[in-house]
Amino acid sequence: MAIEMKYVFAINFKSYETAYNNVALEIAKTANQLSSKYSNVRIILSVPSVMISKIINIYDDIYLQHIDPLDYGAYTGFLSVDSLKYLEVKGSLINHSEHKIIYRDIEKIVKKMKELNKESLVCADTPGEAAGIAYLNPSMIAVEPPELIGSGIPVSKAKPEVITESLKAVKSVSNIPVLAGAGITIPDDAIKAIELGSSGVLIASAVMKSKNPNKVIIDFVEKMNSV
Ligand SMILES: O=C(CO)COP(=O)(O)O
């Protein structure tokens, strides 16, 4: 499905404790306030599946963090892609470096998501992987070098070539928005990623492990909105 062209600020809650407690709800409130105030930034919250029903009452631009390439059936403990028909999420992150899946499964999920009118944000560890994923035409691709994830060392400054090479590889296949992630810590890291040509950032620890997550989000969104 077509993605509205705004800069994307996607927060992956992962399984940090803050993804489940009151902080998660406060982040959702902040996202809701900011998204009506700043029109150039789309804030996506990628939340644990068990939190959907709580967070959806506060903010509706939410994604799952993973989905299984399964139909309905006898699959104990899995989250079938078909179930998204009944879940009030806009889409799902898939193939995060902490939850890799095989190419054939990415293909199946992306196809199913389109049929369900949901978005797929597919992660890639390298420009080469991003290029392969581009052929599946997902809604967005996020490139994240695994060695920088959670490091506080921003990909946009430490390895800008990963972003530029991914963009080149993806755009030679299709005009899919590419996000940059791993080590994004301060708003300037996001601005640098945008200057390199990316459509926004995917971030986790700088928000979820912060003592003041709402301030972090406000600072990023204000700065990204002014680009
Ligand atoms: O994995 C990430 C987002 O999906 C990035 O994590 P950090 O922002 O903690 O580096």
From TrEMBL:
Its EC number is 5.3.1.1. The gene is tpiA. Homotetramer; dimer of dimers. InterPro entries: Aldolase_TIM, TIM_sf, Triosephosphate_isomerase, Triosephosphate_isomerase_arc, Triosephosphate_isomerase_AS. This is Triosephosphate isomerase. It catalyses: D-glyceraldehyde 3-phosphate = dihydroxyacetone phosphate. GO terms for cellular component: cytoplasm. CDD domains: TIM. It is found in: Cytoplasm. Keywords: Cytoplasm, Gluconeogenesis, Glycolysis, Isomerase. Belongs to the triosephosphate isomerase family. Involved in the gluconeogenesis. Catalyzes stereospecifically the conversion of dihydroxyacetone phosphate (DHAP) to D-glyceraldehyde-3-phosphate (G3P). GO terms for molecular function: triose-phosphate isomerase activity. It holds the Pfam family TIM. The active site is at 96 (electrophile), 144 (proton acceptor). Substrate binds at residues 12-14, 149, 183, 204-205. It comes from the Archaea. NCBIfam families: PRK04302.1, tim. GO terms for biological process: gluconeogenesis; glycolytic process. Gene3D superfamilies: Aldolase class I. Pathway: Carbohydrate degradation; glycolysis; D-glyceraldehyde 3-phosphate from glycerone phosphate: step 1/1; Carbohydrate biosynthesis; gluconeogenesis.
